[in-house]
Amino acid sequence: MYLNIMSCAYCDFSPPHPFFIFLPGIISSVVPLYIGEIAPRNLRGGGVTIPLLFLNIGVLLAQIAALREILGNSKGLPFLLGLSGLLPLTELALLFSCPESPRYLLIQKRDENGAREALKNLREKRNVEDEIEELRQEDLAERTEKAMTTFRLLSNQNMRWHVITIVALMAGQQLSGINAVRKAKMSQNDKNPI
Q1: How many CB atoms lie within 10 A of CB 86?
Q2: How many CA atoms lie within 13 A of 62 on its CB side?
Q3: Sign of the Cα pseudo-torsion (37, 86, 186, 14, in order)
Q4: Which segments within the chain are labelled E, that is strand?
Q5: How many domains does the chain have?
Q6: For residues 1 and 58, is the Cβ–Cβ distance under 8 A?
Q7: Domain co-membership, 33 together with 82
Q8: Threshold 0.70, pTM exceeds
Q9: What is the per-residue pLDDT across 114-167, written as a single tens digit (0 to 9) for each?
Q10: What percent of the residues of the chain are helix, what percent strand, and what percent coil, each to the nearest 5?
Q11: CA-to-CA distance for 12 and 66, rounded, in angstroms?
C-alpha cells in the first residue's frame, strides 16, 4: 500500500517515471497472489480482495495528502516523500519474516518437508496433512488439465459470463474518465509549480 502511496504522490508532482507506472500493477498482482497461496481455503476470497481495497485507500490518501493545503506545498513535500520512502523500507525489512508459499514449495519446488513446515508455521498447528493432501490434489488437477488458450476460454460456456463481466468492468474503468482527470491535474501542476 505504501509503495502505491509513494508512486501516486510522486506522480502528482512530476512526469511519471517508468518505475512508478508499473509499480502499482506489480503490487496489485503479487500481493493478492501470495495471500491467496498462503491463506486457508475458506479465507482466500477475502484475503485476496483486502489488499486491493487497501491499495485503493492508499491512492485516496495519497491524493488527499498531496493537496497543496495539506502536504502538497514546498514545506510539506519533503515530509510526504520522506514518509513514502520510510514505510516501504519498513515493509522491506519485514518481508524476510514472511514464509514461502506452501503451495509453491510443494508444487513448483517439490519440497514436501518445506511445505509442511511452512504450513505448520502459518497455521500454528502440528497436523497439516489434510492441507498437504489438498495441495497434492491441486497439483494433480493442474497437470491433467489441458492448457487454456484464449479461443478455448471464449468458447467455454461456463467461463463466458465471467469473461464478459471482467471485460465490462475494465472497459467501464477505462472509459470513466479517471485517466483524463489525472492528466489534467498533472498538467495543472506543471503550470503552477510548488
Answers
A1: 12
A2: 22
A3: negative
A4: none
A5: 3
A6: yes
A7: yes
A8: no
A9: 888 888 888 888 888 888 888 888 888 777 776 777 888 788 888 788 888 888
A10: 80, 0, 20
A11: 7
